[in-house]
Design goal:
The chain has 714 residues and is of the alpha/beta class. 30% of the residues lie in helices and 16% in strands. Strands 3-4-5-8-9-10-11-12 form an eight-stranded parallel barrel, surrounded by seven helices. Strands 15-14-13-16-27 form a five-stranded parallel sheet, with helices on one face. It has a five-stranded parallel sheet with strand order 18-25-19-20-21. The chain is globular and about 75 Å long. The two termini are 39 Å apart. The protein binds NADP nicotinamide-adenine-dinucleotide phosphate and iron/sulfur cluster (SF4).
C-alpha cells in the first residue's frame, strides 16, 4: 500500500494509459548542443522513465523556422529529422516509459530576425519587433503545427503537447495585450480563441483519434491585458471541444513581473488556477509549478485541484522521484529547491542545464565509470555541500567513509542559507543527506575536528578536505566596533540587527541579508496569501491577467547624512519598509506593533547597478522585492572608518556617513583550508574541495559538483 494513493492510481488519457499521475514537464535543456547529443538526450529521458515518471514531455520543438526560440533551436518540420527522434522514443519505450513531444512556436519571443505575432507589438524581453501575421501566415502556421504532430507520431511519440501558454504565439493571439487585430483572428473572445481552437482541431484531424494531445492553457497570465477567469475557462472548453485529451496548466507570461517558479514562490502556489481549469472541463487537467514533493502532489490530487501533476525541475533533481515515492522511500528523494541556478540560469546564459543538487542530471553519460576494483577507506573533513556530496557519492561507489564535521550538525553554509525566506528549501537537501548518510552507513563524526596528525595516522586511502570558508572581515578602521557583525551572525540569529542597518557588500549574501532583514518570518512569507498580497496576484482572476497591484513600499528620508530626500543621483534611493510593518525575523517587537521601521542601506565599492552577479532568472525578483521595500543602494563607495556614528564612506570624493547601529559585513569569504596545508606539509596525499579550495564565487552548485566528481576518481 503506497502512502500516495492518488499519485499512484493509473489513469486513461484518451488512447494512452499511464501507470501513475506523475508527468515530467517540458524543459529545454540544450543537451542537443553537446557532443553525442542523441545518446545524451535518450539517456536523460530513459533515466526518468526508469525512475517511474509515467509520461515525459520533451522540450519545445518549433513547427517552423520563424517560431524558433533562437537560431539553431529545436525544429521538427521534416521527415528528414525522424532519425533524430526515433532512437529517443524507442529508448524510452524500452524502459517502459511514455513520451510526448512539445510543439512550441515562440511567436514574438522568438529571437530570430523574422519573428511573427498577431500584431507588431514587441515584447519587453525581446529587442526584435514581430511582423504581423497575414491570414495566409496563420493558416500555414496551423498546418505546420499539424505537420509536426504527424511527424511526432511517425517518430514514435505517444503524443504531443501544444504549448498555448507562457506568452508564446498562441497566448499572444488569445490576449488583448498583444492582439490588436480587427479581422477574424482578433477582437472579441471568439476571434481571439480561433487560433488555439483551429490548431487543436487540425492537429487532431491529422493524427487521428488514438494519439494523445495535451493542450497547455495559460491558467493565469500575470500581465496587464491578459485573460480573465471566464475567458480562460472558455479557452479550456474550446480546446476540449476541438479534441484535446488533457489540459496542462501554464502560469504567467515570460515577461510577467511576478515570479512563478522561483524559490520566493510558495509551494503549490498556483493550484488555485489549476482548479479553475479543472472546474471548466471534463477532460483531465495537469497541475504545474512549485510542486516538488510527493506529499504535496498527493495533496493537490486529493483536493481535486487536478488529475495529474507536472514536475520538470524535480525530475532533474532526482530521476528516481516516482519510484522512491512509490516504494516508501520518499525520505530519500533529492528534492528540487527551486533555485534555478543550474537549470534555467544556465539555459538562459546559453549553457546546458544540469541541477544544483544533482550534478549528474543531463550529464548521465559522464558518470558511467565502472565500480572501483578495490574498496578504499576515505576520510572527508567538513560536512558542508562539497563534503556531503563527496562523502555520499564515495559511499555509493562502495567505499568506506568517515565524515568529520566540527559543528554538531551537518550542512555548513547551508545552515545559514536556509534561514533566508524561500531558502528553507535547503532543509530538503539536508534531510536528503542525513538519510543517505544513515542508509549508506557513513561513519558521521559530529563535533569533531580531526588533527592533521590523527588523519595522517588514520590509515585512510584518501583524505578529502572540505572545511569551507570563513567570512571576510575587511581591513577598515573600526571594523571591530561593537556595531559591526558578520552575515553569519545575523543569518544564524546569534546577533539581532537594529533599526538602522548598513549592509557592506552586495553579492548574493548581501542581497540575502537585506531580504532577510526586510522580510516577514519564513512561515509567513511562505504562505500563499502573503505571496499573493506582496506581488499583487488576484486569485479570482476577475481582473485581466489576474493582477491587483500588490503591496508597495513607501518612501522615507534618505539615511545618508548630507543628502536630500530620495537621493537624486540615481544611485541612491530612499529607505523604508512596507506600509504595513511586517514582523521581522529578527523579532523586533516594536516593528510588529507598528513602531519605527528598519532602514537598510546596501553598499558596494564597484560602480554600476547592484546585483549583476545574481541569477538570471531570479536576480530580478530580489532586486524588485528590495526596491518595493525601499532598501537603499549606494555603489561606487570607498569605505573610510566605522565609529559610533556609523559607517563613514566617500562617494565620488564626497565624504558621507551612513548612520547605523548595525553594520553587517557581507564582504565575501576566505578559504579555511589550513588542514590541507598541514597534511600536504607532512607529505600526505590529500584532496581539497569546495570553498576551502577557492572561496571566490563559491556556491553550492560548484561545491556539490566538485565533491561528486572527485568521488568518481576513487
Ligand atoms: P560575493 O558575491 O563575492 O560578494 C562579495 C561582496 O563583498 C561584493 O559585493 C564585493 O563588492 C564586496 N567585497 C569584496 N571584498 C571586499 C572587501 N575587502 N571590503 C569590502 N567589500 C568587499 O560573495 P558573497 O555575497 O559572500 O556570496 C558568496 C557566494 O555565494 C557567491 O558566489 C554568490 O554568488 C553565492 N550566493 C549567491 C546568492 C544568489 O544568487 N542569490 C545568494 C547567496 C550566495 P565590492 O568589491 O564592489 O565592494
Ligand atoms: Fe531544482 Fe535548482 Fe536543480 Fe533547477 S538547479 S532542478 S531549480 S534544484
Amino acid at each position: 500500500m503506497t502512502a500516495f494513493p492518488h499519485l499512484f492510481r493509473p489513469i486513461d488519457l484518451g488512447s494512452v494509459r499511464l501507470a501513475n499521475r506523475i508527468v515530467m514537464g517540458s524543459m529545454h535543456t540544450r543537451l542537443e548542443t553537446l557532443d553525442r547529443p542523441l545518446e545524451r538526450v535518450a539517456r536523460f529521458y530513459v533515466e526518468r522513465a526508469k525512475g517511474g515518471a509515467a509520461l515525459i514531455i520533451t522540450g519545445g520543438f518549433s513547427p517552423n523556422a520563424e517560431g524558433l526560440m533562437e537560431p539553431g533551436a529545436p525544429l521538427f518540420d521534416s521527415r528528414e529529422q525522424l532519425g533524430e527522434h526515433r532512437p529517443i522514443t524507442q529508448a524510452v519505450h524500452d524502459a517502459g516509459g511514455r513520451i510526448a513531444l512539445q510543439i512550441l512556436h515562440a511567436g514574438r519571443y522568438a529571437r530570430v530576425p523574422d519573428a511573427v505575432g498577431p500584431s507588431t507589438i514587441a515584447s519587453p524581453i525581446n529587442p526584435n519587433a514581430p511582423r504581423r501575421m497575414s491570414e495566409a501566415d496563420i493558416l500555414r502556421t496551423i498546418e505546420d503545427y499539424a505537420t509536426t504532430a504527424a511527424l511526432a507520431r511517425e517518430a514514435g511519440y505517444d503524443g504531443v503537447e501544444i504549448m498555448g501558454s507562457e506568452g508564446y504565439l498562441i497566448n499572444e493571439f488569445t490576449a488583448p495585450r498583444t492582439n490588436d487585430r480587427a479581422d477574424d483572428w482578433g477582437g472579441n473572445l471568439e476571434n481571439r480563441l480561433r487560433l488555439p481552437t483551429a490548431i487543436m482541431a487540425r492537429v487532431r484531424e491529422r493524427v487521428g483519434k488514438d494519439f494523445l494531445i495535451i493542450f497547455r492553457v495559460s491558467s493565469i497570465d500575470l500581465v496587464e491585458g491578459g485573460l480573465t477567469a471566464e475567458e480562460i475557462a472558455a479557452e479550456a472548453r474550446a480546446v476540449e471541444a476541438a479534441g484535446a485529451d488533457v489540459i496542462n496548466q501554464g502560469i504567467g507570461w515570460h515577461e510577467a513581473r511576478i515570479p512563478t517558479i522561483a524559490q520566493k514562490v510558495p509551494r503549490a502556489a498556483w493550484t488555485f488556477a489549476a482548479r479553475l481549469l479543472k472546474d471548466a472541463v471534463k477532460i483531465s487537467v495537469i497541475a504545474s509549478n512549485r510542486i516538488n514533493t510527493p506529499q504535496l502532489a498527493e495533496e493537490v490530487l486529493a483536493r481535486g485541484d487536478a488529475d495529474l501533476v507536472s514536475m520538470a525541475r524535480p525530475m532533474l533533481a532526482d530521476a528516481e522521484f516516482a519510484n522512491k515515492a512509490r516504494e516508501g522511500r520518499a525520505d530519500e528523494i533529492n528534492v528540487c529547491i527551486a533555485c534555478n541556478q543550474a537549470c534555467l540560469d544556465l539555459i538562459f546564459s546559453k549553457r546546458v542545464a544540469t541541477c544544483l543538487v544533482n550534478p549528474k542530471a543531463g550529464r548521465e553519460i559522464e558518470f558511467d565509470a565502472p565500480p572501483p576494483a578495490k574498496q578504499k577507506r576515505v576520510a572527508v573533513v567538513g560536512a558542508g555541500p562539497a563534503g556531503l556530496a563527496c562523502a555520499v557519492t564515495v559511499a555509493e561507489r562502495g567505499h568506506r567513509v568517515t565524515l568529520y564535521e566540527a559543528d554538531t550538525r551537518i550542512g555548513g553554509q547551508l545552515n545559514l542559507a536556509r534561514n533566508v525566506p524561500g531558502k528553507e528549501e535547503f532543509d530538503e537537501t539536508l534531510r536528503y543527506y542525513r538519510t543517505r548518510i544513515e542508509r549508506l552507513g557513513i561513519d558521521l563524526q559530529l563535533g569533531r575536528r580531526p588533527s592533521a596528525e590523527a588523519l595522517a595516522a588514520g590509515g585512510f586511502d584518501e583524505i578529502v578536505i572540505a572545511t569551507g570558508v570563513t567570512p571576510r572581515m575587511p581591513d577598515i578602521p573600526g571594523i571591530d566596533h561593537a556595531n559591526c557583525t558578520s552575515y553569519a551572525d545575523i543569518l544564524s540569529g546569534r546577533r539581532t540587527a537594529g533599526r538602522r542597518v548598513a549592509v557592506m557588500g552586495a553579492g548574493g549574501i548581501g542581497f540575502d541579508v537585506a531580504e532577510f532583514l526586510t522580510s516577514a518570518p519564513q512561515d509567513v512569507a511562505a504562505s500563499q496569501a502573503y505571496f499573493r498580497s506582496e506581488w499583487g496576484v488576484d486569485a479570482s482572476i476577475a481582473s485581466r491577467g489576474g493582477l491587483n497591484g500588490g503591496r508597495q513600499g513607501h518612501s522615507v528620508p534618505s539615511p545618508l547624512v548630507g543628502e536630500g530626500q530620495g537621493g537624486g543621483d540615481g544611485r541612491t534611493s530612499a529607505v523604508g519598509t512596507p506600509p504595513t510593518p511586517i514582523p521581522s525575523p529578527q523579532g523586533g517587537g516594536e516593528e510588529q506593533g507598528g513602531g519605527e521601521a528598519r532602514q537598510i542601506v546596501m553598499l558596494q565599492r564597484k560602480s554600476g547597478r547592484m546585483g549583476r552577479g545574481l541569477g538570471v532568472s531570479t536576480g530580478w525578483v530580489l532586486r524588485l522585492l528590495l526596491a518595493k521595500r525601499k532598501v537603499a543602494q549606494v555603489t561606487g563607495v570607498a569605505y573610510r572608518w566605522i565609529d559610533d556614528a556609523g559607517l563613514h564612506i566617500a562617494v565620488e570624493g564626497e565624504e558621507r556617513v551612513v548612520p547605523a547601529d548595525t553594520i553587517v559585513i557581507c564582504a565575501g569569504q576566505e578559504p579555511a583550508g589550513s588542514l590541507h596545508d598541514e597534511l600536504a606539509a607532512r607529505g600526505v596525499k590529500v584532496h581539497l574541495i569546495g570553498g576551502a579550495e577557492r572561496a571566490a564565487e563559491l556556491d553550492a552548485m560548484r561545491a556539490i559538483d566538485q565533491g561528486t566528481r572527485l568521488a568518481y576518481t576513487f
